Amino acid sequence: MDWIILITIVFLATSLQTSTGFGFSILGTPFLFLIYPAQEAIQINIVLSLFISMIMIYKVRHDINKTLVKRLIIGSTVGITPGLFIYLTFDVETFKIFIGILILILTVLLIFKLTIKRSRIKDFFTGGISGALTTSIGVPGPPLLLYFAGVNTDKSTLRSTTLAYYLFIYLISLIMQIIFAGTNKIVFTSSLIAIPSLLGGILFGQLLFKWINQEAFRIITYVILLITGSYMVISSFL
């Protein structure tokens, strides 16, 4: 039964990730917690997310904003260390509540047409926050999604640029997880078992991407952000 749940979760989460550039962690991780201990669930999420980016990157390479990716990566390398410090010294659940509430507030502002003017400094800052959230609570996506939505980024650029950035941030996260927390056979066995479902989700997500117009993409973005913020707050009390 656990394998069936795993395969179903991975297919749905991969479909969302492939069609939008976001969502695997948000949709997949809470359900992975139902069948795996937290450390294993997080590492399975990282391995599979990294695998998705590796498969997709060649196809979307022409849409990548290379300048933006470089700035996000540079920013994230600065944010990784403070994020690890937060993870090791602060109450992570309290931190999740704060971040969740902030995401909800900013999403509501975006829904009511808050706009952001993109700049070099904001690119670096967004990468820094993303890096910090990756090493502290394992969620790199919300800062990118908020920023890209605020500057009204085209869906193709958003998806491809995010996937390129994830190649870096998830690889670094996996290395740090293994160094500081270790790993085990279950993580990689489960990831291998999930690969056929992941490949099916990639194919289906590609079809969804072609069907989704820019307005629908924007609405999906807001829904993902609202779910992310709500999950962070609610899960901290459970």
From TrEMBL:
Q: Which domain of life is it from?
A: Bacteria
Alphabetically sorted, this entry's keywords are: Cell membrane, Membrane, Transmembrane, Transmembrane helix, Transport
Its membrane topology: Multi-pass membrane protein
User: Which residue ranges traverse the bilayer?
Assistant: 42-60, 72-90, 96-116, 163-180, 186-209, 216-234
Subcellular location per UniProt equals:
Cell membrane
Which Pfam family would be a valid example here?
Answer: TauE
Entry's family note: Belongs to the 4-toluene sulfonate uptake permease (TSUP) (TC 2.A.102) family.
Name assigned to this protein: Probable membrane transporter protein
